[in-house]
Design goal:
The protein has helices at about 1-15, 30, 85-90, 265-270, and strands at about 35, 40, 40-45, 50-55, 60-70, 75, 95-100, 105, 110-115, 115-120, 130, 140-145, 150-155, 170-175, 180-190, 195, 200, 220, 225, 240, 255, 275-280, 285-290, 300-305, 310, 335-340, 355, 360-370. With about 375 residues, it is mainly β. The strands form eight sheets. The protein has a nine-stranded antiparallel sheet with strand order 12-13-14-15-28-24-23-18-21, with no helix packed on it. A hairpin with a 5-residue loop joins strand 5 (about 60-70) and strand 6 (about 75). Residues about 5-15 have low confidence and may be disordered.
Length: about 375
């Protein structure tokens, strides 16, 4: 009888143990609607490990991304909304979005190409940011879900849209691999020379969406140099060493350890909002960055074929946006790691060129790989 009670106690103990938290998905039928006269849809990708993401064709936005912690508990680690209306009414317009034609800033909304001056929309003070007033983040893309782990989005940006020359045909593929990678690939062709710099703008918090500061996340960036900016966050044309500055993330460092130091560059961006010059890839894609959140054990690695990485620490979030599950998006409660060419490259002859010519194919890849450590 005594042994029976012991066995029953053990069974009860295990049966009462809380089950790991599982992903909670948005009902796709409740998300959609019309934007810009086209139907908005929500697509679900899931891998063999239970990692799942939902992506909308409105701006190619990653709406949620559920990954496990060291105890097997899943959390959604990207900011966003449960409805299309949330995105349409948001103060921060780039949550989870595809960015183009040109990710980051172009000084004074102008550039010269083949002796012609092109004037772009000035939507960031006197500068042009992330493609203009209607960038790719506001496009309703044509979408095809080829299987349960891939989504293909296509869009043709017409000649002179937001001031850019050339008809630009763009294809983007999202793939959720069985290695817990969210792989984003971009292809583009044009019929006229034009600058192209596509990137992705998810806001991450490895504790879970809206779950407090990201200043205690530990960041490593694979770069000896960065591109300093002026007060308008436009590069001044220099490539400067990170050594001896708060921009040095060559060794893993807490994001908030030096973010408020008396350093001019940090004052300009109210914290980190800068481009790092990545070590060049020997072949294929290159390690760009790694982030660790100690309490959950979640890790995120970034790989790319791009020469630059924009690290943004959520300095301009101000609590005006309330997202999924009523979470308020306060300052520095999420971060972005955007693989890219350098800001303002069309006006910076010493930076790698972003000009795509007819007959060429643009290709860019960004991989966000998720894991855990004890």
């Amino acid at each position: 009888m005594k042994n029976t009670f012991i066995i029953l106690a053990i069974i009860t103990m295990f049966s009462c143990s809380p089950k790991p938290k599982q992903p909670v998905l948005i009902d796709a039928s409740s998300f959609g609607g019309l934007a810009d006269g086209k139907q908005v849809e929500l697509f679900t990708l899931k891998n063999s490990n239970g990692v799942v993401t939902q992506i909308t064709n409105f701006g190619g936005r990653v709406v949620n991304l559920w990954v496990p912690d060291k105890n097997g508990n899943f959390a959604d680690i990207v900011t966003g909304y449960e409805t299309l209306e949330g995105y349409l009414n948001s103060n921060e317009i780039y949550y989870g979005a595809l960015i183009g034609r040109y990710g980051n800033r172009i000084a004074k909304g102008k550039f010269v190409l083949n002796d012609t001056v092109y004037s772009l929309v000035q939507n960031n003070g006197e500068n042009h940011l992330h493609g203009g007033t209607k960038g790719f983040n506001d496009v309703v893309w044509d979408a095809t879900q080829s299987d349960g782990q891939k989504l293909i989005l296509t869009y043709t940006s017409p000649h002179m849209e937001e001031g850019y020359p050339g008809n630009l045909n763009v294809k983007v593929q999202y793939q959720l691999t069985d290695e817990n990678e969210l792989k984003i690939e971009y292809w583009a062709t044009t019929d006229r020379p034009t600058p192209v710099n596509l990137t992705h703008h998810s806001f991450f918090n490895l504790k879970g969406d809206g779950n407090g500061t990201i200043n205690d996340h530990v960041l490593q960036i694979n770069a000896d140099f960065y591109t300093p900016v002026d007060e308008g966050l436009i590069p001044i044309g220099e490539i400067s060493p990170v050594e001896g500055t708060p921009m040095d993330f060559r060794a893993p460092t807490a994001i908030g350890e030096r973010v408020d130091e008396d350093f001019e560059q940090l004052k300009y961006g109210l914290g980190y909002d800068h481009n790092w010059v990545l070590f060049p890839a020997e072949s294929g894609i290159n390690f760009a960055a790694r982030v660790v959140e100690a309490f959950s054990g979640r890790t995120m690695e970034v790989y790319t074929n791009e020469p630059g990485l924009q690290f943004y620490g959520g300095n301009f979030l101000d609590g005006r946006d309330t997202g999924k599950n009523g979470k308020v998006y306060d300052r520095r409660t999420s971060f972005c790691l955007e693989t890219q060419h350098f800001p303002d490259s069309p006006n910076q002859p010493d930076f790698p060129s972003t000009i795509l010519e007819p007959g060429e194919e643009y290709y860019s890849v960004c991989v966000y790989k998720f894991g855990v450590e004890e």
